[in-house]
């Protein structure tokens, strides 16, 4: 983490380079941390034994509550800080940006104390509101409240560095956070369940407390990174314009820009919480099944499938985090032509990665699910449907980030709320028609409408080259489907002769199919030079590595 990675943001010609470099760092950090966050399930499930379904459902419900509190407690301020610091940097007002960061840091400390306290002391009421008053959820909520105390500080440290388009420390801190979290989680679960033969509720409580351990480790990484970069940061402040004396205005500015981040960052979580709070009631309207079976159904799509698709959704999150400061900086300079180009490049890069990733996950769903959770035909189906829905969830993340960077905050919130209301309207008919798949169908419809409204508004405001975008989009889709068909065929042939339940065999198939699928897509986009138009000169290096002429 050298000082030189922080650029002085006055070069508009470097926007694509910054986007690619930042996305690469954030994607690597997100992917590795998400994979680690999914892999832990294998030993965790084994050590939970027969109590795994109940433990899994309790863990999922606790984390959904935690996610909402996390969004509210951070108040969207890290994203707002990143956006505003990038704006001030583009105007050569580095000292003003630093002053904004210090103000935000104080606010974040207070927010952590307030919402951590509310979550801890209000655990009983929260349990009644979100999980039907399950007493087992109270110690889980208590453990997660401790993490809420410090994660606002972690988030704003990341937002500060991202405002300089420096994504490496954020990516590294994500990975360190996940390693520390998973290590504590597995160690505590093993001791409680295997050594002491204790209660699964205690194991889940310690597993959720691991969020605090991970956050603490990540804060250490970011503080170290900022101290390493302090000479460069001071140099930029000295050479830029003097800081403005706007303490009161800063507080209003922070919260004015933070509110949209709260609403939009909670968009996907609100969809999931609506499913969580209504799933049992709506399903029992059309199916006569037990509570344990309902918990199993909810766990399949609400936690297990969701945990796997978040690996690929994190790709879009990485791009959104990278795009906000870049587009915000261009907006501050009033460079409309560059904004159009950057918006198109952001969308092209998203689809370039997301389409093959989601179709690839659909194709390998059977061995993937078997490796992580043991074979379950309904679970495989849920993962396949979720993989398709993930395209829209990822697109929502990117489009809402673009609208926020362009200061179209109210529009983005309005569109998100429209989509959420539509999901609520179609939820019951969707469950009636598609049973356990109904919530996913409703999410698909709601998100599709949100994405269409957002894409339309962005294009009206900054009409990028739609013909170029369409040609590239069609090319990506065709190549992704070629890869998809080949992998599906391999999957069908191999599993036709071997049973579904062998996890070792499924792992070998998964690795084989992932390698073949990745090579097919890479070969097609490199051979046709489509990759050159999306990722530039990096395509030549990949061609040399893969020996493609």
Task: Please render the helix and strand layout as text.
Layout: H1 15-39, H2 41-48, H3 52-74, H4 77-90, H5 94-121, H6 123-131, H7 137-163, H8 168-195, H9 200-239, H10 247-265, H11 267-284, H12 291-333, H13 336-363, H14 365-373, H15 377-405, H16 409-434, H17 438-461, H18 466-497, H19 503-527, H20 530-535, H21 538-546
Structure description:
Helix content is 86%, strand content 0%. It is mainly α and 549 residues long. Helix 1 runs parallel beside helix 8 and helix 3 packs across helix 5. The chain has a domain at 40-261.
Structure, briefly:
86% of the residues lie in helices and 0% in strands. The chain has helices spanning 15-39, 41-48, 52-74, 77-90, 94-121, 123-131, 137-163, 168-195, 200-239, 247-265, 267-284, 291-333, 336-363, 365-373, 377-405, 409-434, 438-461, 466-497, 503-527, 530-535, 538-546.
Which descriptors apply to this entry?
mainly alpha, disordered N terminus, single chain, 549 residues
Strand content: under 5%
What separation lies between the terminal Cα atoms?
35 Å
Instruction: Report the principal-axis shape.
Output: globular
Query: How many runs of DSSP E, i.e. beta strands?
Result: 0
Order of helices and strands: HHHHHHHHHHHHHHHHHHHHH
The biggest sheet, with number of strands, parallel, antiparallel or mixed sense and barrel status, is:
none
Helical coverage, percent range: over 70%
Task: Using the CA coordinates, give the radius of gyration.
Answer: 23 Å
Q: Mean pLDDT, nearest integer?
A: 82
The assigned structural class equals: mainly alpha
Number of helices: 21
Instruction: List unreliable stretches of 5+ residues.
Output: 1-13
């Amino acid at each position: 983490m050298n000082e030189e990675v922080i650029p002085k943001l006055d070069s508009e010609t470097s926007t694509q380079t910054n986007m690619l470099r930042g996305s690469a760092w954030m994607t690597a950090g997100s992917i590795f941390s998400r994979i680690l966050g999914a892999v832990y399930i294998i030993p965790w499930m084994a050590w939970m034994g027969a109590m795994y379904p109940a433990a899994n459902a309790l863990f999922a419900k606790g984390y959904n509550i935690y996610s909402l509190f996390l969004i509210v407690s951070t108040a969207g301020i890290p994203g707002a800080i990143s956006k505003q610091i990038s704006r001030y940097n583009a105007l050569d007002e580095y000292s003003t940006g630093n002053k904004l960061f210090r103000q935000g840091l104080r606010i974040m400390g207070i927010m952590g104390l307030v919402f951590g306290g509310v979550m801890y002391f209000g655990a009983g009421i929260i349990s009644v509101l979100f999980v039907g008053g399950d007493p087992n959820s109270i110690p889980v909520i208590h453990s997660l409240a401790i993490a809420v105390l410090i994660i606002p500080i972690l988030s704003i440290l990341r937002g500060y560095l991202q405002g300089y388009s420096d994504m490496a420390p954020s990516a590294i801190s994500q990975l360190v956070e996940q390693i520390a979290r998973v290590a504590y989680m597995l160690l505590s679960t093993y001791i409680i369940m295997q050594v002491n033969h204790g209660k699964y509720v205690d194991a889940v409580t310690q597993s959720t407390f691991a969020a605090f351990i991970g956050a603490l480790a990540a804060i250490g990484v970011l503080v170290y990174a900022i101290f390493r970069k302090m000479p460069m940061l001071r140099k930029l402040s000295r050479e830029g314009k003097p800081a403005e004396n706007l303490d009161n205005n800063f507080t209003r500015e922070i919260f004015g820009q933070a509110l949209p981040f709260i609403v939009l960052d909670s968009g996907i979580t609100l969809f999931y919480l609506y499913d969580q709070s209504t799933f049992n009631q709506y399903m029992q309207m059309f199916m006569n099944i037990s509570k344990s079976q309902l918990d199993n159904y909810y766990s399949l799509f609400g936690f297990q499938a969701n945990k796997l698709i978040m690996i690929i959704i994190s790709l879009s999150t990485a791009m959104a985090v990278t795009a906000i400061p870049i587009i915000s900086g261009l907006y501050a300079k009033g460079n409309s032509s560059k904004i159009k180009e950057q918006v198109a490049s952001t969308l092209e890069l998203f689809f370039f990665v997301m389409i093959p990733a989601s179709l690839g996950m659909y194709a390998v769903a059977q061995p993937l699910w078997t490796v992580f959770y043991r074979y379950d035909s309904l679970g495989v189906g849920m993962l396949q449907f979720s993989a398709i829905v993930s395209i829209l969830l990822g697109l929502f993340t990117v489009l809402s980030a673009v609208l926020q960077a362009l200061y179209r905050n109210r529009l983005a919130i309005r569109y998100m709320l429209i989509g959420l209301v539509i999901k609520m309207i179609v939820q019951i008919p969707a469950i009636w028609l598609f049973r356990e798949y109904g919530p996913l169908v409703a999410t698909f419809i709601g998100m599709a409408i949100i994405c269409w409204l957002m894409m339309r508004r962005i294009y009206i405001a900054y009409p990028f080259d739609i013909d170029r975008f369409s040609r590239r989009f069609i090319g990506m889709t065709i190549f992704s489907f070629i890869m998809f068909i080949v992998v599906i065929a391999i999957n069908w042939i191999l599993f036709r002769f071997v049973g579904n339940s062998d996890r070792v065999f499924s792992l070998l198939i998964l690795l084989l199919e992932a390698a073949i699928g990745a090579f097919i897509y890479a070969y097609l986009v490199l051979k046709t030079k489509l990759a050159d138009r999306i990722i530039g000169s990096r395509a030549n290096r990949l061609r040399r590595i893969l020996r493609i002429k």
